[in-house]
Design brief:
Layout: H1 2-31, H2 42-52, E1 58-65, H3 68-75, H4 77-96, E2 101-106, E3 109-115, H5 122-134, E4 138-139, E5 144-145, E6 149-155, H6 164-181, E7 185-187
Parallel strand pairs: 6-7
Antiparallel strand pairs: 1-3, 1-6, 2-3, 4-5
Length: 224
Amino acid sequence: MNLLIQALPIAAPTIGWAAHALFLVRRLRTARTDPLTGLMCREEFTSRAQRAVKRPHAAVLLLDLNGFKQINDTHGHAVGDQVIAAVGRRLAAWCRERGGFAARLGGDEFTAVVRLAPDADLDSELTCSLSARLSAPLETGSVTLSPRASIGICRTSHRPGAALSDLLRGADEAMYTAKRLGEHWRPAGPVDVYRTTNGRRDGRSGTRSGAHLTLLAPMRRNAS
């Protein structure tokens, strides 16, 4: 008992430091994680993705949910949050199976980096696998929904040596094209088609939009 009493003054600061360190680790993890989906936030994604795209067979994806504003307007934001959370879980699982990871950029937009074999069948991967998984019926408690997304993909093999920002721009342009054409997904070509920052056009007027695709600022907001 005397030894225990003598050890307490020494052990107490050590226990305190350990508890404080654990608190800091948890706080840092929270800062790097989107609270709704559990996916990493854009800053953490950027750091990891810049390394990941230098590896062989990497591909960058951008996803945007279709009709999400209507879901919010019709069923409320609580149901909208359930949709976002479910899409995040489903996307994360699909990415892990392909040696990759995903992030939520904000609103109903997501991004990911995965590894795909050079001979991978993209229609099978993105339509039969990813799109089908994302659109599986979701029971929210008040309504059953099938989330649907437009997907753009830019493979590093199509743009050798391209920076992450260029790969994201290509995926963004491909995603917007898929949305405009009503398709599940579209691939990016070796170069951007439009001379705008991210290639988006105003669907009503046909004029190019002034939206900017950046890694550190929000893209679109719930206007799908």
